[in-house]
């Protein structure tokens, strides 16, 4: 029975080396491409020496989340721009156990190693690689699970976040516990859901902690303003006029400062408002299908049904009517 490391700072690289991998668990370049794309996202996978590549990936499913143990030698991944993003967008949260990995997304670059983790957004292009052997834990989680509990989580992409706090170490232990438990026991759906909820609670607690807030580029004052703006916009999605001037005035900040708050995000203020409107429309179409498309468009600030349907389809890849029929 394979077991996985319990501490990021004490992991022995040799334990996960090629000689330590059972032959049945060892994948070559061709199998690795297929496995990576099936487990995570559609990625371009390239190798310096395909003939000598080896890797191993053990993925376990919870309820909505997936957790995996990854070990491989030199490899490079590239995510292209997605023209029709999945409405149920996911993120990857990567925890290096051994070795160092390089990650680049939306003008942010980082090198991450044991004792830290980082977030990868699925709807933006990125590059991810390691030049030597590396072992990782990777969580795949629907973005909606995080955004419902952590304000502006998308601002934290491609930042090196520490695991050195007590909560961080508990989070790492929980990932180890989940993989080992599911590999050793047959769990019911309820038991998997409980494990997922425990992991989600630790993630939310850690990402919301004052330590991470201080490591972020946002000060406490900026975070307070962002929360006020987010709350105001969400409560007023029915209002067609959520222009920077209108919202800045309502939230007692200048227009210039409002735009500054969104400078570090992967979207502008206007793009964010549109995304908020469309996500709310998506939820209403699924939860209140008895409403007409025109009524839902009005509830999220669009008076022109044709325009609403057009931008909705461009954003999600299918029409509002199709959303109702998909249920």
UniProtKB/TrEMBL annotation:
Residue ranges constituting the HTH araC/xylS-type domain according to the UniProt record: 227-326
UniProt KW keywords: DNA-binding, Transcription, Transcription regulation
GO molecular function, one term: sequence-specific DNA binding
InterPro entries: AraC-bd_2, Homeodomain-like_sf, HTH_AraC, HTH_AraC-typ_CS, Tscrpt_reg_AraC-type_HTH
SMART domains attached to this UniProt entry: HTH_ARAC (SM00342)
Residue ranges of the TM segments: none
Pfam families in UniProt: AraC_binding_2, HTH_18
Protein name: Transcriptional activator NphR
PROSITE patterns: HTH_ARAC_FAMILY_1, HTH_ARAC_FAMILY_2
High-level lineage: Bacteria, Pseudomonadati, Pseudomonadota, Gammaproteobacteria, Moraxellales
């Amino acid at each position: 029975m394979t077991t996985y490391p319990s501490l990021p700072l004490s992991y022995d690289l040799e334990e996960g080396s090629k000689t330590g991998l059972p032959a049945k668990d060892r994948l070559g370049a061709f199998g690795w491409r297929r496995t990576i794309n099936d487990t995570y996202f559609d990625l371009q996978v390239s190798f310096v020496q395909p003939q000598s590549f080896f890797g191993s990936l053990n993925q376990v499913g919870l309820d909505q989340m997936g957790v995996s143990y990854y070990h491989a030698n030199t490899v490079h991944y590239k995510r292209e721009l997605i023209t029709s993003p999945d409405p149920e967008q996911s993120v990857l949260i990567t925890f290096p156990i051994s070795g160092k990995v390089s990650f680049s997304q939306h003008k942010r670059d980082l090198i991450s190693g044991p004792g830290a983790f980082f977030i990868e957004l699925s709807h933006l292009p990125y590059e991810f690689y390691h030049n030597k052997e590396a072992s990782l834990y990777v969580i795949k989680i629907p973005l909606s699970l995080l955004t419902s509990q952590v304000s502006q989580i998308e601002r934290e992409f491609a930042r090196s976040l520490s695991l050195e706090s007590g909560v961080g170490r508990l989070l790492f232990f929980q990932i180890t516990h989940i993989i080992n438990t599911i590999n050793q026991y047959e769990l019911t759906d309820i038991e998997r859901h409980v494990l997922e909820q425990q992991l989600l609670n630790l993630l939310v607690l850690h990402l919301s902690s004052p330590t991470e807030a201080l490591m972020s580029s946002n000060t406490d004052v900026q975070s307070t303003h962002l929360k006020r703006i987010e709350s105001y916009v969400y409560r007023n999605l029915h209002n067609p006029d959520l222009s920077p001037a209108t919202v800045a005035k309502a939230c007692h900040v200048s227009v210039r400062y409002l735009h500054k708050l969104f400078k570090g995000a992967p979207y502008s203020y206007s793009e964010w408002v549109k995304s908020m409107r469309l996500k709310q429309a998506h939820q209403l179409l699924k939860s209140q299908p008895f409403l007409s498309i025109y009524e839902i468009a009005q509830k999220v600030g669009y008076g022109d049904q044709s325009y609403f349907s057009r931008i909705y389809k461009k954003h999600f890849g299918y029409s509002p009517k199709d959303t109702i029929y998909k249920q």
